[in-house]
Automatic annotation (TrEMBL), chain A:
<feature type="transmembrane region" description="Helical">
    <location>
        <begin position="186"/>
        <end position="209"/>
    </location>
</feature>
<keyword id="KW-1133">Transmembrane helix</keyword>
<protein>
    <recommendedName>
        <fullName>Glutamate/aspartate import permease protein GltK</fullName>
    </recommendedName>
</protein>
<dbReference type="GO" id="GO:0022857">
    <property type="term" value="F:transmembrane transporter activity"/>
</dbReference>
<keyword id="KW-0813">Transport</keyword>
<dbReference type="InterPro" id="IPR043429">
    <property type="entry name" value="ArtM/GltK/GlnP/TcyL/YhdX-like"/>
</dbReference>
<dbReference type="GO" id="GO:0043190">
    <property type="term" value="C:ATP-binding cassette (ABC) transporter complex"/>
</dbReference>
<feature type="domain" description="ABC transmembrane type-1">
    <location>
        <begin position="22"/>
        <end position="210"/>
    </location>
</feature>
<feature type="transmembrane region" description="Helical">
    <location>
        <begin position="22"/>
        <end position="46"/>
    </location>
</feature>
UniProtKB/TrEMBL annotation, chain B:
<keyword id="KW-1003">Cell membrane</keyword>
<dbReference type="InterPro" id="IPR050086">
    <property type="entry name" value="MetN_ABC_transporter-like"/>
</dbReference>
<dbReference type="GO" id="GO:0016887">
    <property type="term" value="F:ATP hydrolysis activity"/>
</dbReference>
<keyword id="KW-0029">Amino-acid transport</keyword>
<keyword id="KW-0547">Nucleotide-binding</keyword>
<dbReference type="GO" id="GO:0015424">
    <property type="term" value="F:ABC-type amino acid transporter activity"/>
</dbReference>
<feature type="domain" description="ABC transporter">
    <location>
        <begin position="5"/>
        <end position="240"/>
    </location>
</feature>
<dbReference type="GO" id="GO:0005524">
    <property type="term" value="F:ATP binding"/>
</dbReference>
<protein>
    <submittedName>
        <fullName>L-glutamate ABC transporter ATP-binding protein/L-aspartate ABC transporter ATP-binding protein</fullName>
    </submittedName>
</protein>
């Protein structure tokens, strides 16, 4: 039995190689969530569109992506597609896979948020002369956001951890770098605990941010909080 | 005098089989107050929503002043910015304060500055007796208060006409008066108004004409006094006896 190595643990806790890996994980999460929200909005609007073709395409897309594991998708994109002449770098393949996944899941979250805004709100917005874009921006989206934020926050939390799957196609993120160091030093437990702590740190930070966002979009719905704000 | 609102042979279907509006015609002159009543399901709410294009129609013609409502090239947002509308369930924007509710159309649609919009809002709040509630959210207000804010939100756009779709139907009895008072005031100032309502007291007080609808048709369109004294159709007689009988 080797026992726990405190010195090794603290050394890796501040190791720049690992820290860079954590930064890559964070970057991948921010990029795929941002692009995923945009793409998710497009898929959601397509799904809600009165045109059957658009709605069917969107349905097929979410069915396909949500029905297959990200791990399989990444391997197909990175390792499989070159067989038919389509080549992506590791970063490109990772981002494509993550964004496609987030878009599929987020589109359903966004759709339910938009559908939760009562019909009277769109009539009221139109009645003061708003265009459809203005109505979406000033009336529907802020109200949908209140419904969307909690499950969206869940997705961000999930995405922070899901990026680790990209280590399988040698994306140099937190888990991959942890594994590389393990190959060198064999401090398996210490290194995995360090990795776990970094994940925990990032998900906790997001938790705090999410709470602030929820408070912002919750205004007008919580009588006590609103009254306090007016004092 | 050029009429303010004209509906000519308006037809509307829900789906293929159900015709909600059957060749409805109606004219409202500037400054006139027209009350529309009738049993539920008679099409009166649908009719009033057609006037500002919130409900599309399949036949006939609608115009407001010199703007065509029906027709493919109509700029509906522009038209609606000139026609105020008040709904049965108020439909204030719940994520905005009272002031923000009244300002949003002024700044985003009419292009007024924030300062101009806020000044106008303050004056309107005074007028509907809600000055103390400027910074509150709709959820903090009673139904009657919310409806007065909804009226202020519509008036903020300086409308040429106001449409009211059962403005007091969702209110507790003790709140109906505070809303009707604002509407009576508005009528006396000469606002052109189309009002769908069961409040026959309001109709008696300020209406110029009463339109009675049933089964998607305009059954009667008569001066107020005539309507209450001697309704022409049997259906109107039955309707009046039902709602005035207690």
């Amino acid at each position: 039995m080797k026992g726990w190595n405190w010195d090794g643990f603290f050394e890796y806790l501040t190791n720049t190689y690992i820290l860079e890996g954590a930064a890559v994980t964070l970057g991948l999460t921010i990029a795929s969530m941002t692009l995923g929200v945009v793409a998710g909005c497009v898929v959601a609007l397509m799904r809600m569109s009165p045109f059957r073709v658009l709605s069917n395409i969107a349905y097929f897309y979410t069915w396909l992506i949500r029905g297959t594991p990200l791990l399989v998708q990444l391997i197909i994109i990175y390792t499989g597609l070159p067989q038919i002449g389509i080549k992506f770098s590791v970063l490109e393949a990772t981002l494509i896979g993550l964004v496609m996944n987030e878009a599929a899941y987020l589109s359903e979250i966004i759709r339910s948020g938009i559908s939760s805004v009562p019909k009277g709100q769109s009539n009221a917005a139109r009645a003061v002369g708003m265009t459809d874009v203005q109505m979406m921006r000033y009336v529907i989206a802020p109200q949908a956001a209140r419904i969307i934020i909690p499950p969206l926050g869940n997705s961000v939390n999930g995405c922070l951890k899901t990026t680790s799957i990209a280590s399988i196609i040698s994306m140099e993120e937190l888990l991959r770098r942890t594994q590389v160091l393990i190959q060198e030093k064999f401090m398996v437990l210490e290194l995995f605990v360090v990795a776990a702590l970094y994940y925990l740190l990032m998900t906790t930070a997001w938790d705090l941010i999410q709470r602030r966002i929820e408070r912002h979009f919750g205004r007008g719905y919580d009588i006590k909080a609103d009254a306090a704000e007016q004092r | 005098m050029q009429p303010m609102i004209v509906l000519e042979d308006v037809d509307k279907w829900y789906g293929k089989n159900f015709q909600v509006l059957k060749s409805c015609s109606l004219t409202v002159s500037p400054g006139e107050v027209v009350v529309i009543c009738g049993p539920s399901g008679s099409g009166k709410s649908t009719l009033i929503k057609c006037v500002n294009g919130l409900e599309p129609v399949q036949g006939g013609r609608i115009s407001v002043k010199d703007m065509e409502v029906t027709g493919p090239r109509t700029n509906l947002p522009k038209l609606r910015s000139h026609v105020g509308m008040v709904f049965q369930h108020f439909d204030l924007f719940p994520h905005m304060t009272v002031t923000e509710n009244i300002c949003i159309g002024q700044t985003r649609v009419l292009g007024r500055t924030q300062a101009e919009a806020e000044a106008k809002t303050a004056a309107l709040l005074e007028r509907v007796g809600m000055s103390d509630h400027a910074r509150k959210y709709p959820i903090q207000l009673s139904g009657g208060q919310q409806q007065r804010i909804a009226i202020a939100r519509a008036l903020a756009m300086d409308p040429i006409a106001m449409l009211f779709d059962e403005p007091t139907s969702a209110l507790d009895p003790e709140m109906i008066t505070e809303v009707l008072d604002v509407m009576v005031e508005l009528a006396k100032e000469g606002m052109t108004m189309m009002v769908v309502t069961h409040e026959m007291g309001f109709a008696r007080k300020v209406a110029d004409r009463v339109v009675f609808m049933d089964g998607g048709e305009v059954v009667e369109d008569t001066p107020k006094d005539e309507f209450f004294a001697s309704p022409k159709s049997q259906r109107a007689v039955e309707f009046l006896s039902k709602i005035l009988d207690h």
